[in-house]
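Predict the 3D structure for this chain.
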Amino acid sequence: MGVLTKSFALRLAVVAAALVVGPATLAPGTAEAPRPTRAALAGDGATAAQTFGWGVMQWDFAWEFGESLDSPPYRGEDIRVGRWTEYSDGTGRVVKYGGGLEFHSGVIRNRDLDALPDHGTTMLTLRDQAAQRGRWEIRERAERLQSPEADYRFIIELIPDDLTADACKRSITIAEVSPGNGSLKIGASAGDVRWSKTYDSGFPQSGDNYAFGLQITGRRITWFVNGRAIASLGAAAARPSVPMTLRLRLVGDGAKEMDKSQVKLDWVRHYDLTRGKVPPTGATLTQGANRC
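Done. Predicted structure below.
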């Protein structure tokens, strides 16, 4: 056999082996994996899990393979249970899109958007995956599709898994943003006390991607945006004393007409505390009265 023939045969063997083995798959608990580029770490695309080397991924909802809201997470250490419940008291709904979910304030694909109503609150609540400690991270992007009316608020928060509890009296706001706006609010409530911080600008919700994260340890709560620790709180009373679950809300103002908006979720993830670098403390939060 000539040299060229041997080389060709070798290439065929390599290709055949690759077809038999198939693409590499991520083992349960593996992080999302490729190491981020320098550009990603500088902004859009970076995650706290990558930057700080978070521990074992417990679950990952990504809706990439046709999963419904009732489907459990598609990968992670604990993928046996987990589902999302939807609620709407107005025109909004949550729909599947290519590789994620979308909150729609109302009908958004129509030639005459201005003539269609947008009001009320639309909500997703995670069930069967509560935790008192750990790390949560969510990839989100929002867009305001019209602007003659009032802005919606989109709130990512932890509330008691016992949904009969008063969430206003015990909650942690991972991020509160408004489509078409650039502000960000974070905070925590415990009884009559509220710790909070507001960034008036710097987080434009105009189709930009954000990875909002939260870490709760036995000593501190830390907030993250795009792989950067932005604030922390050491108050013992702020740390949950009960299992908490995620709630995501596109919040209107009752029956009042609002700006037509959409919010997209690429994925929602949870990690344990087995390993990871200690993040900087970041900014402090202001303590005040909790006005429920």
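The mean pLDDT is 86.
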